Amino acid sequence: MSQSSTEQLKKTPLNARHRAHGARMVPFAGWDMPVEYSGIVNEHLSVRSKAGLFDVSHMGQIEVAGKDALAAVQKISTNDATKLSVGQAQYSGLTTPEGTFVDDLLVYRLAGDHYLLVVNAGNIEQKYKWIADHTRDVGDVSVVNSSSRYALLAVQGPAAQAIVQALTTVDLSSIKYYWFGHGEVAGVRSIISRTGYTGEDGFELFIPPASAERVWNAILETGSAAGIVPVGLGARDTLRLEAGMHLSGQDIDETTSVLEADLGWIIGWKKADFIGKAALERQKGDGLTRKLVGFEMIAAGIARHGYPAYAAAGEGIVTSGTQTPFLKKAIGLAYLPIAATAIGTEFEIDIRGRRAPARVVSAKFYKRSRS
Amino acid sequence: MFPADRRYTKDHEWITVSGNRGRVGITDYAQKQLGDVVFVELPDVGRAVTQGQSAGTIESVKAVSELYSPASGKVVEVNPALSTKPDSVNSDPHGAWLFDLELSNPAEIDNLLTSEQYTELVK
What we know:
The complex is a heterodimer of chains A (371) and B (123). By secondary structure, chain A is α+β, with helices and mostly antiparallel strands.
């Protein structure tokens, strides 16, 4: 544990709150972040059955505005942003000319010519520069790193809507999945987005950092009867993996293409162009040699990030793996040779020198029942 | 509190000794560091283990950790309850034992930390 380097780590506006809650703090992507409060299993199960509150203020916000903002967003991201109405959000990729990932992101259309990009916590400044550099020739567009202007809280779980609704006059039932609205939450101006990284219904609240503690406390207080708990990065990771969502820097990075990551659905093939489009078209035409799949262990053992995989068709690698608290199974994501990626294909994973059998399954390990 | 009826390693295992038999577990400090334990990989009965060498692994949700044997000897029994209730290592670390050893060199126990010394180590 590297307690000695905490001085150089960045802190969210809620850092003191986390410490007061007794959270175990760890360095993550340059930030001093809570990994768990009451325990990963308890936090994970609370989100699946009740609700959880996350501080995700370490995420980066980059705004793109101007007459040519849409053209700029279209150029640097894979998905087709013309599909976005004002008030709508979209999952997308920030890609290299090779069609591999700089990062994955959410694109929010705040106004006709104003977009908010939410990127992952690592190297926010580099990603901002990447976007600014690659949109300089687009025309009338300004790109601003506004990360320090937002704290970001996530309220996730079946009780999330009732809890947030008690703190706002905005009719939350009118906000559909991957849409957002504006209004006060606990008296604080917020962007209220129906998005998340857990596989549950829920909201992400963009608020001024100075008011973060007020909103955090109000949500915990209001949600206490419903059983809300603060949730750290540990359960955030097991929840997203159970829901089959990718972790940037681990499952997807500059060595893996959007197609290999099985994220073809975020590619706007009909767009005139975007960075990496030609490479992805070529890859689509040639056919993939490997692809990211979900797997579950057949025998005892837990596969982890970086463990080698061996299929009849060749070698692969595990990018995420854990024992999931809700499904109570050892699951994970792995890149496998394309001939080994059909559901049901059996292969082996080298768990610290011992080969353990695993089976390809749908990466949507957990699907919530929608009422 | 770390019970005085046993000895401790700097790697956060404990061992109780009765005659030439030792019983091994991990400390409350260790289980707190690990977080929720979901899988314990124990040595096979009959296997010879060496003091300070790996004898298995303990996996929490977030990570895998080596389990080092506090003493040398032959594994004579493993705790069968851990295969279905690995989380008892969290709820009762000083009671939930991992494996029993027939000690090959009981004098090794003197190398280990006392409760007071271990308390000082993790302070």
